[in-house]
Backbone:
């Protein structure tokens, strides 16, 4: 299943607006199944490093096909996996990455960074959940 630019842009806009309504500024990156950026944005005043972290969360989520929170929990119990994932600079398993499913098929992932990682995770979960109900 393909992730269109229009859908990716909708996710980015929704995430920035959802975070803003909570008083949180975030960077958002949406990637396709291969981990390539489709759309991204950084809210006013959000540090540029957050865009990189958001992309690494999205890439990790797309790669594992799971929320980064789940990958983090899984990796905690497996020293080799944890060392491998932590040692890969292209990935971040901090919470805030969420896979995107379209018509029941993996289409990519979103990564959010800028708030506390628990906020990033909740925002990602919210916007992906809304997409599933559209």
Residues:
């Amino acid at each position: 299943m393909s992730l269109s630019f229009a859908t990716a842009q909708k996710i980015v806009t929704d995430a920035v607006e959802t975070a803003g309504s909570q008083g949180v500024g975030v960077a958002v990156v949406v990637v396709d199944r291969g981990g390539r950026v489709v759309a991204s944005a950084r809210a006013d005043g959000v540090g540029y490093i957050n865009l990189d972290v958001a992309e690494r969360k999205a890439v990790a989520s797309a790669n594992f096909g799971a929320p980064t929170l789940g990958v983090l929990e899984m990796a905690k119990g497996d020293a080799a996996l944890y060392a491998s994932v932590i040692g890969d600079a292209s990935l971040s398993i901090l919470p805030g990455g969420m896979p995107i499913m379209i018509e029941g098929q993996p289409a990519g992932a979103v990564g959010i960074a800028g708030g506390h990682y628990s906020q990033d995770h909740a925002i990602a979960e919210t916007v992906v959940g809304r997409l599933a109900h559209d």
